User: What shape does this take?
Amino acid sequence: MEIKYFRTHISFFIISYILLLSFLFFTSYKFFLSDSFLLERTQNESNIKSFLASIDNEIKNLKNTTNDYSTWDDTYEFIKNKNKKYIYENFREGSETLENLNINSMIYVNLKNEVVFSTYNNKDLENNKSNFEEFITTKFKEKANFNSIVNYNSNFLFLSKSEILKSDKSGKARGYVIAIKLLDNAQLSNNTIFEKIEIKNEKTISSSLKLNLQVLENIKVRTETTANNILNNIDFFDYNDEYTISINTSNKRELVNNAEKTIYTFNLIVSIVLFLVFYFIYKNQYLIETRNNILNKEVARRTSQLDKAFRKLKDKNKELYALAHIDSLTKIRNRRSFFIESEEALNSAIKNDKNLCILMIDLDYFKLINDKYGHAIGDKVLIEFCFIVNSIIDDGTIFGRIGGEEFCITFFDKDIVIVENIAEKIRNNCANKQIILENNEILNFTISMGLSCRDNFDDIDKILQKSDELLYEAKKTGRNRLIRVHR
Assistant: This one.
């Protein structure tokens, strides 16, 4: 019996050891390595966005240059009179204007699409200026203002074109200013986000990520992974959706590869430790099995007791939190919670110089609704109002009940126009909401609102006081309206 007993336990331990190791290998790869893949993908997308933002910033600076020169009154007169004084003051030999502007060429074109003046600090473009200027003026003559990357005979250029107008934008355009900056591998290699960056003149077959930046439009990105590298193919298209250039980047997959090595090492160590643990348990199993059974039963009983106590404590904590922070009727923030979160939002807005607005809302004639229909219907109106507001605002907006039928919404880092549109949408939805009572009678309700912002006050009580004054003014002037403080 004893030999059979030990054989049975040996088999049990061996099977258990193999199953546990298999589970360990599976879970470690599935969860830990999958997190590494996700982090790698997120980091790569962040690198792409940072890289494209730097390119976008280059052409944005070029755009600012053309805008400065195109809205200069001296430029406006120069296109008409071809005054050589303008050329001497701005582009005379030795002036280094193009170098200071960090561009390679500037071309002035009249409304007949004729080049009035051009200057270069790049010999390749200047030696071929006749063909190059014909290409520029012909290909983009239909577009008055645009910014793009251009492919000219496998030379890749940042190009910005702006109408020449008076500084006050009055009068008709007299021509165009075109600024050009070369884009090459050496320039892109200064970017340290990727280990390797290369310009290609070969369009990617398909794309998995599409981006639009501040200036550049229609950029498509396709990412591929090999065993050791992450490859990104970035295609650029102009305003006509015509393919321009591609930029290929690559980085080593250090994150995933290091994670794999770590998992290998971890699994090896754990497998050895588990083997020793299983061996020790096996050797001592016969002597302590009876005692372990008793102890396991006791542990199970005590664990069950602790679990029950923990669940009760957790439920009590939830109840206490709800009592301290949540309005019991509407299930939104109560007055205390609203003030705490709004004070934190205001401090953040002051510290980071962000906008903060507080919208105070009061339900019109709510006392009459309670008196006529009863408090149960009044509560139903409050709940319906909160449902309308929650369906419109986003998760980052602070919404709370500060009194019976008084509510406040705190908007952090939102433009005043957006806040006004949200407030008007809430007001319209409330005014158009029909609550059907048990006798099929239709109950309508409206709201009045007051809105003030941090740019007027840097104290939460003063902002709320001003919102309350504007709310009172809204009620005095007819209700069902929004009144905000004017800057």
Q: What stands out?
A: The chain has a mean pLDDT of 83.
